[in-house]
Amino acid sequence: MKKLIFAAILSTTCILAQAQPPAGDANTGDSYGSKFNVTEVMNLNDVVKKLKGGSEFQEVQVSAKVLEVCAKKGCWLKLELANGETATVKMKDYGFFLPVAATGKNVVINGTVNLKTVSVAEQKHYAEDAKKSQAEIDAIKEAKQEVRVMASGIVIAQ
């Protein structure tokens, strides 16, 4: 019986530990995900303009400011775009997370950028992760198109 209780406590602790964003200060030079050499970095706003003009990007390095990090696990980011818009960053293969301390920092992301239609259910999921009020969650009624970055690696720029 003691072994069973110990196993239950251990597994619960492990599950709860995994449901937290990684600890850390997100200092300049800190790297998350796959390591990469920062080379030809483009401003995310320039990439979005080209994307909306019909260009495609297989793999690109973009720079942008982090507005928000998933408070639940650090599994997604919101990046600042021109005109008050945002881009959503997801981590490739759910393979790494960012600390909440990355909020407000400039980052360089190695990955792909595309336009994606986001369902109402997915938008509500992100709103719940961001700890939005129930009224804000209930106000989501339509799918929307957004800029989506699939990150294989991220470096804190400043």
Structure explained in plain terms:
- With 158 residues, the protein is an alpha+beta fold.
- It is 26% helix and 35% strand.
- It contains four helices and seven strands.
- It is globular.
Question: What's the rounded overall pLDDT mean?
Answer: 86
The best one-word shape is: globular
Q: β content, as a range?
A: 35-45%
Largest sheet: 5 strands, mixed, barrel
Total number of strands? 7
CATH architecture grouping: Beta Barrel
What class, by secondary structure content?
alpha+beta
Distance between the termini: 52 Å
Tally of individual domains: 1
| Element string (H = helix, E = strand) | HEEHEEEEHHE
- List the uncertain runs: 12-17
The total of helices stands at: 4
Spatial extent as radius of gyration: 17 Å
The CATH top-level class label: Mainly Beta
Report the helical percentage: 25-40%
Strand order of the largest sheet: 3-4-5-7-6
